[in-house]
Amino acid sequence: MSDVTLLPCLTESSCIALDTWIVADVAIPKLRSLNLKGNLEFDGEKDPNTDEYKTFVLEVSYIIIEGGRLIVGWEEDRYVS
Q1: Over the stretch 38-50, which tens digit does the pLDDT of each residue have?
Q2: d(CA 4, CA 6)
Q3: CA of 45: how far to CAs of 20, 38, 69, in Å?
Q4: What digits encode the pLDDT tens for the residues 67-77?
Q5: With contact defined as beta carbons under 8 Å apart, do 47 and 27 qualify?
Q6: Which end of the chain, C or N, has fewer beta carbons within 10 A?
Q7: Do 12 and 61 contact (CB within 8 A), yes or no?
């Protein structure tokens, strides 16, 4: 079973719900706001098509972290881009 999440549209507000863990492996559109009740992690793996690490830009007017986490790498698996 595939767990597919649709991306928000440009300039929308978005909320990651409590007990939700999203791994961003594609570009995220520009957002007006991002509310993190759950977790947003950026995929630190290499792109299989280019063998280069993925690069992400998070362009948000404001981020609210309400018990959630914004994860950009781990101590044992650092994000290198």
Answers
A1: 999 988 787 788 8
A2: 7
A3: 21, 21, 19
A4: 999 998 877 77
A5: no
A6: N
A7: no
